[in-house]
Design brief:
The complex is a heterodimer of chains A (529) and B (696). Chain A is of the alpha/beta class and 529 residues long. Chain A has helices at 30-45, 62-67, 97-103, 108-124, 135-151, 175-178, 184-192, 203-206, 221-226, 231-250, 257-294, 297-309, 313-325, 330-343, 349-363, 367-376, 389-405, 421-428, 457-468, 475-480, 515-528, and strands at residues 21-26, 51-56, 73-77, 83-84, 90-91, 129-133, 164-169, 198-201, 212-215, 485-489, 505-510. In chain A, α5 (135-151) links the parallel β6 and β7. In chain A, α4 crosses α5, α12 (297-309) packs antiparallel against α13 (313-325) and α13 packs antiparallel against α14 (330-343). The longest helix of chain A is centred in the middle third of the chain and has 38 residues, at 257-294. In chain A, 37% of the residues are buried. With 696 residues, chain B is α+β, with helices and mostly antiparallel strands. Among the domains of chain B are: 2-240, Methylamine Dehydrogenase, Chain H, CATH 2.130.10; 252-465, no CATH class. Chain B has a four-stranded antiparallel β-sheet. In chain B, strands 8-9-10-11 form a four-stranded antiparallel β-sheet, with no helix packed on it. Chain B has a four-stranded antiparallel β-sheet with strand order 12-13-14-15, with no helix packed on it. Classes of the chains: A alpha/beta (529), B alpha+beta (696). At the A-B interface, α2, α4, α5, α13 and α15 of A face α15, α16, α18, α20 and α22 of B. Chain B: It comes from Charadrius vociferus. Chain B: This is Vacuolar protein sorting-associated protein 16 homolog. Chain B: One of its GO terms (molecular function) is actin binding.
Chain lengths: 529, 696
């Protein structure tokens, strides 16, 4: 319609084209702006005159525009906030959210979250009840309310389709994100990285020399049956499935011509499709198994579990040490260190030093800055003997007065927060006490996503708050999570429990969530109807 | 507008309060103004000036001043006898007459023109008139001849010979929009003449006697005749009124009016009249005629009787659409209200077109009232017409508030309070606009007070910046949660304040500070350093230097940057980071030596990989040296060494190493690593040394 000549991917290569207009559709990132600046400047050098238009999605961020001062370029916005990935997952696809907000204290994405909420609100009617925990959640919610008031939209009186919305910051619950994932979808993500609902299976999975891009959602009949299962039961399921498939194929024998014709025209295509998917997932499983058995996966899980339970800390620490010394994987080592720090409320000074030193020796001195950043967001800290509780509290009160200066205040300069994991875990019963073996095939609670060792904190909070219809009775937990909880019901929306919408709950994770959490919430949804 | 001799144009408002002035240019200043004309086109109000040098200068819009000097008329020695400004095809041109010649001046040229159908003996031009819509032109000559035609000078409409030869004082057009009848009104001292092309009403010409000195004002639908004691309106009688009020008219409207009058007298004649109309099936038309005619009447009594007739007629029609009647009643109510002598806006119905009613541009009556500061009546009219709050009342209140802030005799508190009291949270009110007005009047404090009422913080910021209240602007921007807005203010502050004050301001606003840091990180790294320096943040300074060390190409540069980092880490009392950096410097230097000695890349490897590579290449001594120098923990060294040896396939050395002293990691790893390299033979060697519990 607009005579678009050719589409290019924004990457490091320059786009060679003879057309006299360029239109860039980009995320507001400095890197992409530099890329555009390079193209514009190169054209200027070679004396080409072109028109340039940059469309930012979801919104223009002046930082990025300012950093790459470009003349003769016009900008626009494409308010694209939500990408539906599956029947029950909507993503904002903002991987920079976590770093920008939690590390750099940049609040720009809060606006995007608020606008996304506004969009959902306009599509599905007012939310009956809103719960949330965390500063970002609170700010997003407040900003969204302001936007609603300003726009004076007529969503009033509409029948709500989403009964409850739960906003949650990532930082009250880092533990869940740090645990090794055990459900199939989580493992696929850990091993191959799921991007925008699709995954690239490499040659070792496809058992050919090409890699294949596969969409992973409820449409994939094989995947939808195993995605939420604990990995240990996936293999059995797949082999059962392949036997069934074989049986269906085998029906061919002993068919007459007519039946055969029927079979080919009706069933064969579906079977072939299923067959293809099945072989892919079996391939993926094998690949995961190979990785996970090679690196003493069992031992790592054991270490993780004892960290969660708080037993044999010494042993786990030396496991981590060995892990580092053997250069197993820089990211896994860090993950274990962070898990240790957060479950133990910081590392004891001796370990803190020696683990860090060995890490630097193993993986390179540049990680000094990594450690600094991890400390800043409280993921890897030192147990402070000298810092008494009052010192912490005076810091907190200083923060509070800062906050009084404006609605939004500094988030990054915060003290290394205490995680209080042990106390929260005890209060909410996150470590299930089971007699005998935990049945992973027929799970009784959300802990199955971590082999029955741990109920994801984030999901537990959502469960508890929805059950109690508020934070009542959770005061102690809230205090341990640093507060900022809220629960507000929209007075305009009648509280009618009979409504279908009461059963629809929107959980918003600010700063990302894991597939284990999604699986746990799906489990919760199934349990509670 | 008031045009002075030197070409200065002064602009006053309706209350004779001086607004501003502008000059018509140097030429006018030097040669003085001989004659000036103010004209209105769709582009606004224009001013045309004839200077003492017989040249024309004009501007078509005094709000967007662009002066144009028209070309010279060749051989012009005396002032033109008459001239007029024409607007054709969006171009403003001047038509002037000198004796018997007509000249047309456009932007670039001067041309002689002759109106069609003009006989050469008609004499010299004395007067000319352009119609309100610039479509028609009339010329008056010294023989008493009047030529009427199109302003394009392409067609003659009609001509006249008046017996009066003396130059008229004024000549204007009198016509109604969408009417084909056109007339010219010519005024002498005590005489008024109407000449037109109508076949019916104006046979040739009509003369009236003027009792007093009068002045003619041409308008959209007629001519106002103003004298010291009277204000008359001369216009073509609209068709509907003619039909009804013509003597012995049998038009349906006239009959309906009569029927209604008889009905009031309780006479049976009412039925007769009504029947007559109904027989012709003209009742709807009769009603429409009465409604329309009511609009043209100025006397409320006549309006009422016509509307009553219409309402009476309506009763006998099924489904007569009520809108026209209701609208006319509303319009007349508004018109009568503003025609009241205390208000004094005698608009005609045509000048108050219904399509304007729902727009509040300056031409419709509530806005006229606003300009006259008749706020209460304007609000009542808006309410009566049920205009939406945002379109009507809010705007009027905003105007009122803007006027209110100019009242210098009241204190800031009083004014702000009064405004808030009246405006409250009325939708569509922009407090920032009112505040901007207050600031324009030099009342900064009042402006700030008013801004407090503005609910959208985003709107407060630009004005605060303009008023140089940057710090307040900054906190408002932060309050709005809009990072872009914060950036705008921060960068504004950066240019406005000196560096020290700027940094100090940021220190008190952590959000702004962190945003500015982000900006510096990408754009001005040196500033970032200054920022950290300012608050003695040695830790961040250290990080900064480490970060920049990676962009240094030469080893010396890197070591230098790291040395700086080291100093800062010491100052920050971060011994760990200091030690790590020290080690890194040591490692870098060592790696350079290794690179030189062995001619292999060692730079940027981690310590682990460096040692590992040394072992792989068989430089066991050097590896040993590093192990001691960097105090690599024993366990780590053992892990490292056996895997490197296994990779090298140096099983001999491995066996030697295993016996060098007791393994801190046990002997299981030896077995495992051998198995991994498919060397069962070697694995068996170590198996006996594995502790019994691990042996299983």
């Amino acid at each position: 319609q607009h005579e678009v000549d050719k589409l290019y991917k924004v990457e490091s290569r320059p786009a060679l084209s003879t057309s006299d207009q360029f239109c860039f559709l980009v995320r507001p990132r400095i890197k992409t702006m530099r890329y555009i600046a390079d193209i514009v400047n190169a054209d200027k050098m070679s004396g080409r005159s072109r028109k340039y238009k940059i469309i930012f999605s979801p919104q223009k961020v002046s930082l990025t525009v300012l950093c790459c001062h470009l003349p003769h370029v016009t900008c626009d916005e494409w308010s694209f906030y939500l990408l539906p990935l599956d029947e029950d997952i909507i993503s904002m696809e903002l991987p920079e959210f976590f770093r920008d907000y939690f590390l750099e204290g940049d609040h720009r994405w809060i606006n995007s979250v608020a606008r996304a909420l506004q969009l959902l609100n306009s599509l599905y009617g007012p939310f009956g009840k809103a719960y949330g925990i965390g500063r970002c959640a609170k700010m997003s919610y407040e900003l969204w309310r302001d936007l609603e008031e300003e726009s004076e939209g007529d969503s009033q009186g509409r029948k709500p389709e989403i009964g409850n919305v739960f906003l949650m910051d990532r930082d009250p619950d880092y533990v869940t994100a740090l645990c090794s994932q055990m459900v199939y979808e989580g493992l696929v993500d850990d091993t191959f990285r799921i991007k925008c609902g699709s995954v690239d299976f490499g040659p070792d999975v496809t058992s050919s020399d090409k890699s294949i891009k596969v969409l992973l959602n409820a449409q994939d009949k094989v995947f939808s049956q195993i995605r939420n299962e604990h990995f240990s039961s996936v293999f059995g399921f797949l082999s059962q499935k392949s036997r069934n498939l074989q049986a269906q194929y085998d029906r061919r024998r002993g068919m007459d011509i007519k039946q055969m014709k029927n079979f080919v025209s009706q069933e064969l295509k579906g079977l072939k499709q299923e067959h293809r998917l099945l072989s892919l997932h079996i391939g993926a499983c094998e690949s995961i198994m190979k990785k996970k058995t090679k690196q003493d996966f069992q031992e790592m899980i054991k270490a993780e579990h004892s960290l969660l339970e708080g037993f044999d800390i010494r042993e786990s620490t030396s496991f981590i040490e060995e892990h580092i010394d053997r250069q197993v994987s820089p990211i896994e080592s860090l993950r274990l260190m962070c898990l240790l720090s957060i479950t133990e409320n910081g590392l004891i000074p001796k370990d803190y030093r020696s683990l860090k030193t060995q890490y630097l020796q193993s993986y390179g001195p540049e990680h000094l800055l990594t450690f600094h950043n991890l400390k800043r967001i409280g993921l890897l800290t030192e147990q402070s003997a000298g810092e008494t509780l009052t010192a912490v509290e005076s810091k907190v009160s200083k923060l509070v007065t800062d906050r009084a200066a404006g609605k939004i205040t500094d988030a990054f300069n915060s003290l290394a927060r205490r995680s209080n994991f042990r106390a929260i875990s005890k209060k909410l019963g996150l470590i299930p006490r089971v007699d005998g073996e935990y049945d992973l095939k027929m799970p009784r609670d959300m802990a199955y996503v971590f082999s029955g060792a741990y109920v994801p904190l984030s999901c537990k909070i959502i469960e508890q708050v929805l059950e109690r219809r508020g934070w009542l009775g959770l005061e102690e937990v809230v205090r341990l999570l640093n507060g900022n909880e809220f629960s507000i019901s929209d007075s305009a929306v009648e509280d009618n429990p009979a409504w279908e919408s009461q059963r629809v709950i929107l959980a918003v994770f600010l700063g990302g969530c894991t597939f284990s959490e999604i699986a746990a919430l799906r489990f919760l949804g199934k349990e509670r109807g | 507008l008031c045009i002075q001799e030197d070409g200065t144009v002064l602009i006053y408002n309706l209350f004779c309060e001086f607004k501003r002035h502008f000059s018509m240019g140097n030429e006018v200043l030097q040669n003085h103004v001989l004659e000036a004309k103010v004209f209105h086109t769709e582009y606004g109000t224009g001013v045309a000036i004839l200077t003492g040098a017989y040249r024309f200068s004009l501007t078509t819009n005094i709000d967007d001043l662009k002066l144009r000097r028209m070309p010279e008329v060749p051989g012009l020695q005396k002032p033109p006898s008459c001239w007029a400004v024409l607007s054709q095809d969006r171009v403003t041109i001047v038509l002037l007459a000198v004796g018997q010649d007509l000249y047309l001046l456009d932007n670039t040229s001067c041309s002689v023109v002759t109106p069609p159908g003009m006989s050469p003996s008609t004499g010299a031009y004395l007067q000319m008139a352009v119609s309100f819509n610039y479509r028609c032109l009339a010329l008056f000559t010294d023989t008493g001849y009047i030529w009427m035609g199109l302003a394009t000078l392409k067609e003659k409409l009609c001509e006249f010979n008046s017996s009066i030869r003396s130059p008229p004082k004024q000549m204007v057009w009198c016509m109604r929009p969408r009417s084909r009848q056109r007339a010219v009104v010519v005024a002498w001292d005590r005489q008024l003449m109407v000449a037109g092309n109508s076949t019916e009403c104006i046979h040739g010409e009509h003369r009236f006697v003027l009792d007093e000195d009068s002045y003619l004002v041409p308008e959209l639908d007629g001519v106002r005749i103003l004298s010291r004691t009277s204000h008359e309106f001369l216009h073509e009688i609209p068709e509907a009124s003619q039909e009804i009020f013509k003597i012995a008219s049998m038009a349906p409207g006239a009959l309906l009016l009569e029927a209604q009058k008889e009905y009031e007298k309780e006479s049976q004649k009412a039925d007769e009249y009504l029947r007559e109309i109904k027989d012709q099936k003209l009742l709807p038309e009769a009603v429409s005629q009465c409604i329309e005619a009511a609009g043209y009447e100025h006397e409320p009594d006549t309006q009422k009787s016509l509307l009553r007739a219409a309402s009476f007629g309506k009763c006998f029609i099924d489904k007569f659409p009520p809108e026209s009647f209701v609208r006319m009643c509303q319009d007349l109510r508004v018109l009568n209200a503003i025609r009241d002598y205390q208000i004094g806006i005698p608009l005609t119905f045509t000048q108050y077109p219904p399509w304007d009613r729902h727009m509040t541009d300056t031409s419709s009556s509530p806005s006229r009232l606003v300009l006259r500061r008749l706020y209460p009546l304007a609000i009542r009219i808006c309410e009566y017409l049920r205009l939406s709050e945002i379109q009507g009342v809010s705007r009027i209140l905003a105007h009122w508030a803007c006027y209110k802030v100019q009242q210098k005799d009241k204190s800031d508190e009083e004014v702000a309070h009064a405004i808030n009291q009246k405006l409250g949270d009325t939708p569509g009110i922009s407090y920032s606009e009112i505040a901007a007005r207050a600031y324009d009047c030099g009342r900064t404090e009042l402006a700030i007070k008013l801004l407090e009422y503005e609910p959208r913080s985003g709107e407060q910021v630009p004005l605060l910046l303009k008023m140089k209240r940057s710090k307040l602007a900054l906190s408002k921007a932060i309050e709005s949660g809009d990072t872009d807005l914060v950036y705008t203010v921060v960068l504004h502050l950066k240019n406005e304040l000196n560096r020290g004050t700027f940094f100090m301001t940021l220190q008190n606003q952590p959000v702004a500070l962190s945003l500015y840091r982000q900006f510096c990180k990408h754009q001005e790294r040196e500033t970032l350093k200054d920022l950290y320096n300012q608050d003695d943040n040695h830790q961040e300074l250290g990080n900064f230097h480490v970060h920049s060390s990676y962009s240094e190409k030469r080893i010396e540069g890197r070591v230098g940057a790291l040395q700086n980092a080291l100093d800062e880490y010491y100052k920050a009392k971060n011994e760990f980071a200091a030690k790590a950096t020290e080690d890194q410097i040591k490692l870098l230097r060592l790696q350079r030596h290794l690179q030189e000695d062995f001619d292999k890349p060692y730079l940027d490897l981690s310590l682990h990989d460096t040692v590992s590579n040394l072992i792989l290449d068989g430089h066991h001594k050097r590896a040993e040296q590093l192990y001691r120098e960097f105090k690599i923990p024993d366990k780590k060294y053992w892990w490292l060494k056996i895997s490197a040896l296994a990779n090298r396939g140096d099983w001999e050395e491995m066996e030697k190493f295993s016996k060098s002293k007791k393994s801190p990691i046990g002997y299981l790893p030896f077995v495992e690593i051998s198995v991994k390299h498919h060397n069962r033979y070697e694995a068996k060697k170590y198996a006996p040394r594995v502790t019994p519990e691990q042996r299983v």
